[in-house]
Amino acid sequence: MLHAKKNMFIFVPNMKATNNISFKSRINILSPYHYAKSPASQNIIHYFQDAKHKNVVMESDFCTKHIRTCIGGGLMSKNKSSAIGFHIWDELKYKDLQTYIKYIKKLMPKADNGLLIGSKSLNDAEHSIPYFNKIQEQLLEVCPNLSYFKTFTQPYGQADFTYLRDIDTWNIRLSSLKPYSTEMTHIYKLKDFLKFFKEIYIAPTDTLFINGKQITKTQVPEIFR
User: Fold this and answer.
1) Which of 6, 80, 111, 114 can pair with 146 through a Cys bridge, CB separation 3.0 to 4.6 Å?
2) Computed over its alpha carbons, how large is the radius of gyration of the chain?
3) Around Cβ 113, how many Cβ atoms within 10 Å?
4) Pairwise pLDDT comparison (12 vs 42), residue with the higher score
5) Burial 81-90 (b: 16+ CB within 10 A, else e)
């Protein structure tokens, strides 16, 4: 089941200095076209479990793709010019998951903003949701303002993201492979986004944009609670 598991439109071309960052992170859900046009990063986070690939990075920008049953995201602090990004495999042994969590918390013992994405409810991914819950529980200790997109509702749903610390912006591409097909469905409308995850939460320190339009608490109070 590898295909099911594995695991803005607004962006600012003139990057601002870190000390001019707003305390509100921008979370951009983008169409494939606008995701491709948004700033890229060469700091790739992998989910592969070997010495050649990094699952946790601390950089000024980073990116990852194919978050499915695994858990991806990051943390930032207004006092640091770099942020932490991660992509944690859901088939890790529990003791290895704990090692990753401890490492992330050591790198960022106090965070102002954060984002968590991933997990699925699948018969062959028994650790996916429990591991998401464990990471969420532990990261809330160092980052009370943690936004999250929890549990894809589509068995072939996935997320890719790029984070840019100097403008404190997450650019995210959401998609789902149609069963028995190579055709992708892309998620960049509010009604589709709300149905794409079982739980969505936008922290008070974050703003949400979908294909260039800001989404407010007045529109969807349930995700800004």
Assistant:
1) 114
2) 16
3) 23
4) 42
5) ebbbbbbbbb
Smallest Cα–Cα separation from 71: which of 139, 12, 21? Answer: 139
- What gap in Å lies between CA 14 and CA 122, rounded to an integer? 43
**pLDDT given for residue 74 in this prediction:** 98
The pTM of this model reads 0.89
- Our CA dihedral for 64, 6, 74, 25, rounded to 10 degrees, sits at 70
- d(CA 187, CA 149) in angstroms, rounded, equals 13
CA distance 120 to 129: 6
- Per residue in 188-219, pLDDT (tens digit) is 999 999 999 999 999 999 999 999 999 999 99
Name the residue among 1, 116, 15 with its Cα closest to residue 67: 116
Two tokens, residue 19: 């000390």
Q: What is the pLDDT of residues 79-106, one digit of tens each?
A: 999 999 999 999 999 999 999 999 999 9
By the 10 Å C-beta count (0-12 exposed, 13-18 middle, 19+ buried), 19 is classed as exposed
Tokens (6 digits) for 186: 């892309």
The number of folded domains in the chain is 1
